[in-house]
């Protein structure tokens, strides 16, 4: 496995029914999560989350991939240089 890097994953949840599965995926990667913040945006019926991790690139990519496979969930990642 590669060296750990800090990464921020931005998540948009457009289907509230996917929240339980989303939380299960985040729990699965919990050992790498530094912190998370979720903001419900009721006028649009969505939630926006930011999750910060300290993990190998492969782990972050695996998390983002699993999140992207959930119905109504979009995820994008930004990596630090370190």
TrEMBL record:
What the entry lists under SUPFAM superfamilies is as follows:
ACT-like
**InterPro entries to which the protein is assigned, alphabetical:** Acetolactate_synth/TF_NikR_C, ACT-like_dom_sf, FeFe-hyd_TM1266
Domain of life, per UniProt, equals Bacteria
Residue stretches spanning the membrane = none
This protein's name: Iron-only hydrogenase system regulator
What Pfam families does the record tag this protein with? TM1266-like
């Amino acid at each position: 496995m590669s060296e750990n890097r800090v990464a921020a994953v931005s998540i948009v949840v457009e289907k509230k029914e996917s929240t339980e599965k989303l939380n299960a995926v985040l729990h699965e990667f919990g050992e790498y999560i530094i912190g998370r913040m979720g903001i419900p945006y009721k006028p649009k019926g969505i939630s926006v989350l930011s999750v910060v991790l300290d993990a190998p690139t492969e782990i972050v990519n695996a998390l983002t991939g699993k999140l992207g496979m959930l119905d109504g969930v979009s995820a994008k990642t930004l990596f630090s240089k370190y």
